[in-house]
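Hey team,

Filing this mostly as a record. A colleague (T.K.) asked me to run one chain through the structure pipeline before their review meeting, and I want the input and output archived in the tracker in case anyone asks later how it was produced. No errors, nothing strange. Just documentation.

Input sequence:
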Amino acid sequence: MSTQNIQNLTVAQAEKILHKFTCQNIKLVESPEEKAITQAAILLLVNLSDYQMLGICAESTTEALSALESYLRALGYNNTLIDDSNFRAIEGSVYIKFNGMKESYHLEPYIGKYRGVLVSCQSAEATEVNGTYGYLPLDLFA
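Output structure:
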């Protein structure tokens, strides 16, 4: 998809692009073009929703925090939200839940097999964007 088409992306097209990244079908981004269109799709839906919740499943606390920071920056949240001193390092894989309404986060151990980021767009009106997309790549916005 060309840059012109990325800028004219519709909600339906964005949701179709992101539907490829489902829990049942873990998908990797295989090219710079695919990365750009995936970024554009999630940013469009985020910008049309009231707030977002993120769920990050990663191999380590460091990897999870890196993904959280890059996603928050890309989604337009305050860059100073994350204070590493609030986290105690957890051995092994972890899950971070970020609540965009409260701008708070929680870290805990995770034993599941999935890795990536779930982005849940929340809107007050049922006719607006409400949906969960992912697992998206941890490094999509790195």
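Quick notes for T.K.: The chain has one domain: 3-136. The radius of gyration is 15 Å.
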